[in-house]
Amino acid sequence: MGTLYDSIGNKDPGHLIKSDDWNELVEAVEKVDQRLTDEVAQLASDISALDGRLTTAEGEIAQVRQDVDAYFAQHYRLTMSTQRTRYAFGELAEIRAVVTDVWGNPLPAVPAEQRPWVDFLTVWGQLKPGDGFVSRGGAGNRTISVRTNENGEARALLRAENAEGFTDEEEDEVSGSLQTHHAATGFSLAETFINVKTPMEAKNNGAFAVMAQEYDRSDSNGVRKYLDAFYLRNQYTFVPILPPIFTHRWKDYRTTVMAVATRDNDPTTPDHGRGVSSIHITFRDWISPWFALQYLTIDDGLVGNYMDRFRPKVSDDYAGTMAGVLTEIDDILVDQGILGKIKYLKNINVALAQMEVTAPPVFYNDLIHQVQTGIAMQQTLQGIQMVSGFGEQQVAMQALGDAYIASAAGEAATSGKVNQLEAQVSGMKNDVSDVKRRTADLETSVAVVDQKADAVQQTGVELAGRVDTVQSQVRNVEYFNVSDLNNQMNKLNQLWLHYGSAGPTG
């Protein structure tokens, strides 16, 4: 215990309390009381000073709060969301942006023209406004400004890069086809393309075949236009001599969509981003592997059907056969899309190559080759023809067929002239034979003359021998008469002249 307790306290019952002890106790109590009084007074003074400081602080806090409220009143909280983050080509991803104050509270109700706007920006794909929203588009549809509704919402639709230029109705048709239920997987076609691991799996479970049926439907103009446009924009990436590269993997396009909330959409008024957000969305290209693995492949059923259609058109008439085959091809390709024409032309080409005909005409192989050449030209020019507005007619094939038919007609007209020329040549051959006969007689006469010339030459040799003999005799004669010798030589010369010109007579 304390000192006071030790000195005057610690008493047992019956102990005497002295006056000094009592006085000491009273004095100690007074000191404590004074000390408490002083401390309370000091505390009251401190509290008074603190109260003043608190009053000042409250004023400063109120000012700060006012400044903070004014600052945040100029800013928004912007949140973005979408139903899912993975989509198939042909689907529309709806992006929902909600504008609130910075605390997440709804914005106060104001007239429509005073509501904030949301600027959407994408690095890939095209944007368009959601249904019922006021908007202003940007160049290339990569940006769009959408005004919020009474709930502070702004909605934009994101589509794949290849969907530019399609109407809302056409996009709805494509999207609707992708929602077709696929019994083999229990999902829609779009969900199947997204969920299966490889394109080959989508082919094997029949999803690609269902999409081919959707394209071939006569009333699916939007689907045809969409897929044809994709092919025209990417046809140079499909190299038929190489194996498909989309067999074991998908090609996904991941894009970032950003959004900025602004007070208005007037570029002349100073403004700044009052709220920023972003979201990532992925689109899967199922069209390229569908081309390579399903639609643009050879169909044995079609090939057999085409051979049955072409065989009755073959006859001994070249022009009739060509016209019949081309007419049959036109009937096959009528009312088909660009991809349909390319597919059927490929199968027609195979059918012509494999078709066998009983007792084919002499021109059969040449005609088949000419038709296949026309098919190759038509396949090359198909896209250009459609873009250039030449319509449905197979321009390249028809032009080439007309040229071959005209050539065949010209050949027939020329055939008669060739026969006349052959007759003239035959007459000339007879004349040549007569000339050859006369030449043979002349050659016989020449041979006789040659024989006579040989005899003359032999006589000359004999005369030369006689001259040598005479000269030898002259050298052996010691005395001779020059005049007689000259006479003898003159006789020899006469004999030479006689035999040299007429030849020996016997």
Topology at a glance:
Layout (H helix, E strand, L loop, with lengths): L2 H6 L10 H55 L3 E6 L3 E3 L4 E8 L16 E6 L3 E4 L5 E3 L5 E5 L5 E7 L8 H11 L2 E2 L4 E2 H7 L3 H6 L2 H10 L4 H14 L16 E12 L12 E11 L1 H9 L4 H11 L7 H16 L4 H17 L9 H25 L6 H82 L5 H21 L4
Parallel strand pairs: 2-12
Antiparallel strand pairs: 1-3, 3-8, 4-7, 4-11, 5-8, 6-7, 9-10, 11-12
Helix pairs in contact: 3-7, 6-8, 9-11, 10-13, 11-12, 12-13, 13-14
Protein model, in words:
The model is unreliable at 239-243, 386-392, 410-418 and 501-506 (pLDDT under 50). Among the domains are: 3-72; 77-293, Immunoglobulin-like, CATH 2.60.40.10; 458-502. Helix 12 crosses helix 13. It has a 6-stranded mixed beta sheet with strand order 2-12-11-4-7-6. Helices cover 57% and strands 14% of the residues. With 506 residues, the chain is α+β, with helices and mostly antiparallel strands. It has helices spanning 3-8, 19-73, 168-178, 189-195, 199-204, 207-216, 221-234, 287-295, 300-310, 318-333, 338-354, 364-388, 395-476, 482-502; strands at 77-82, 86-88, 93-100, 117-122, 126-129, 135-137, 143-147, 153-159, 181-182, 187-188, 251-262, 275-285.
Brief digest:
57% of the residues lie in helices and 14% in strands. It has 506 residues and is an alpha+beta fold.
